[in-house]
Structures are given as structure tokens and as C-alpha cells.
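Quick one:
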Amino acid sequence: MGWYASLVGWGARRAIPRPLRRPLYGAFSQVVGADLAEADRDPVEFRSFGEMFARRLRPGARSFDLPADALACPSDGALAVAGPLDGTTLVQAKGKHYTVGELLADDAAAAAYAGGWYCTIYLSPANYHRVHAPLDGEVVGYDYVPGAMWPVSRPFVRAVDGLFARNERAVIHLATAVGPIAVVMVGATGVGNLWLEHLGDDSRGWRADGELRRIELSPRPTVRRGDELGAFLLGSTVVLLAPAGVVRPAAAGDAEGELVAGATLRCGQPLARVGAPGGRS
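Output:
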């Protein structure tokens, strides 16, 4: 998978001559169903497929104007699974499980989420590929966990044991009024360049030495719900983690309603209501 992932990544970064951009991007968007009309600029301004995938949206295309206790969806995509953690075990697919400790590569950090709640969102090539803060808070730091570059499409999720805990990923640690929140950006084939908002270009060099890195930020950047946390190319996966007692079940009439596997999600829509067993840490 390594050589193929590198080839796809190289192709995504390759500059496209300006006269070819509109027909190429137009053909691609028709094939995969991407809505480039939502982009904040004319697609001809995107110098590469990578820039097109990591596009920002025009003002008003998404809204994070929610009640104060709403947990916002951090990305566009399709809901794979959402619900309570069984201890520290997450469901990947039927008969496939992995643990928070494996996902974070940190058993001590995983303990904070025991018995908590999680949500897994799959981003296809059609989706908007930026990831946003689900709540107000502070960015405590980032972990870069090196790994494989398996595709994260449904057939591979069903077949590869612990896929999300085996692929390359970045863990974004947030401190919020309801306690720690982890937003995990899982890479996939060709998605080796994870861009993180508060590291900028420094995050692009992580992959070079293949080493586990843990970075604490000081001072901690403050983020508002909806602020950008990062972006990646092509299709990938976001896993959202919350501690026990934070996420409340949806009540009848709640805007978020029941989260059903396969549902189409848009960043900024409410996923759940949150309470406050613990504050910033």
C-alpha cells in the first residue's frame, strides 16, 4: 500500500495547467458528486487536486449557530456509527472492534473516555474535507501516530482488523467546558498530508521520519465551535470521542434526533446534547 499511497498523494499535489483545471475538476465532480459551487472561489483557482479537495466553503454554506449545549458535527460525511463506548471499545464494523487506547496510541489518555461516547464519520472524495471544532474550547495539543495507508471505504473497514487504529492519524486534543474531547483525523490511501490549523506547514513534515509525536501547545489556542482544526485530501475518516456522562441521549423533538448509520452529515449540524461532568483540563 505504501507505494500506491505515495503515488496517489503525489498526483494530488501535482500542479495542473490552468486551462485544464475547469474541465478536469468539472469531470471529477460529476463522477463523484462533489459540489464545487459551495467553494469559496472559482475552481480554476485551485492549482492541484489537493487544493480542490481541501477547499474552503463560501460564507453561509455551513452554519454552527446552535444551542450552547449542542455538540456540532465536525465534518461532512456519512455516519458510520455513533453511540456509547463499551468500556474503551469502539465498533469498526460488524465483528470488528478496536480500543480507544489503540486509536490514540495512548492508554493513559484513553482512560478519560472509558464508558463515554463516540462517533465515526466517513468522508468520501465527494465531501468537503475540512474538520471543525465541535465545541468551544482550547487546543491542548496534537499527537501524530504513524501507520499504514489502507483505504477506509466500506469493504476495507469490514475486512481489515483495527483499520482506524492501524492507519496514520492525527489526534487533536481539546479542553472544553464539559471535559476533554478528542477529534481523530484518520488518514487513508493518498491522504498522507494532514494539515493542522495551529501547526500549519509544520504538520506536513510529520510523515518524513515515521515517528510518534506528541505536541503540547503553549499557550493553548482558543477555538470557537465551528473554527477550523485541520484538513486532509481525498476520502478519510473522523472519529470523535467524549468522556462518560457528557453526551445525553436525544429526546423526542430534539433537532439532532436519532443518529442512523449511513445518514448524510454536514459539519455544523447537531449530533447530540452535552452536559458537564468536568471542565477544562
